[in-house]
Amino acid sequence: MSTGVIIALIVIVAVVLVVAAVLALRARGPQHGGSLKRRFGPEYDLAVARHDGDTKAAERELAERVRRHGSLRTRPLEPAERERFEARWAAAQERFVDSPREAVGEADRLLAELAAARGFPDGGQYEEQLTALSVHHVHHVEGYRRVHRVTHARVDDARDGGAGTEEMRASLVEARALFEALVRPDRHDAGRRRTGTEAGEPAPAAHAPRTTHAWSLGKRRPKES
């Protein structure tokens, strides 16, 4: 085989390898983006909108969220902690009828404290806490974002950015989903309790009935605070 033929074969092989590498990179990109879109759902769309339609920038942001918070291990609540949080949430719901703005503010503080108690970043770092929650509770995090926005809206006039009673009610209802997700025991926590009981440890006492059931404000129109 002549030297020219050998060189031609080497060039052809090199070109094939380069083309294969390019195709592999192109194939990996959409799969990565598709995986992020499936994982983050509505948060993916919000990120794209925040980056003015730049999906690559949005995907870099979401990938960074996973890198920073994906391995976060949550801390289980003690039974007494859980009961205190549930009692405070029930009180906030009841307070809404007479003082909706104060009730929503309490819900915002309560979610921040509950998330911190479960091992998420401290509530004083709202954006960082929200980012971490979006990785682990993506389908519920919008409720926290909404109740926080309503809490810090201008209070003088709803038309100028303040929240009206209906918006406050809707935000509190939506935020309850994240509260429920954070306050209930994780499956692996329940498994640890069962394992301990089987090993001879005393079974935990039964909790009081949950108080965070669905609620309605239809019987009485709440007053604006």
Average pLDDT figure: 79
Cα-atom Rg, whole angstroms? 25 Å
Strand content: under 5%
Number of strands: 0
Overall geometric form: elongated
Structural class: mainly alpha
Number of helices: 9
Provide the succession of SSEs.
Answer: HHHHHHHHH
Largest sheet: none
Tell me the span between the first and last alpha carbons. Answer: 92 Å
Percentage of helical residues?
55-70%
Low-confidence stretches: 27-31, 156-161, 188-225
Provide a descriptive summary of the structure in words:
Residues 197-214 have a biased composition (Low complexity). With 225 residues, the chain is mainly α. Among the domains are: 37-71, no CATH class; 79-187, no CATH class. It has 9 helices and no strands. The longest helix is centred in the first third of the chain and has 38 residues, at 3-40.
Describe the structure using short key phrases.
225 residues, mainly alpha, 9 helices, 67% helix, disordered C terminus
Topology:
Elements: H1 3-40, H2 42-50, H3 55-69, H4 79-95, H5 100-117, H6 126-136, H7 141-151, H8 165-183, H9 187-198
Question: What's this entry about, in short?
Answer:
With 225 residues, the protein is an all-alpha fold.
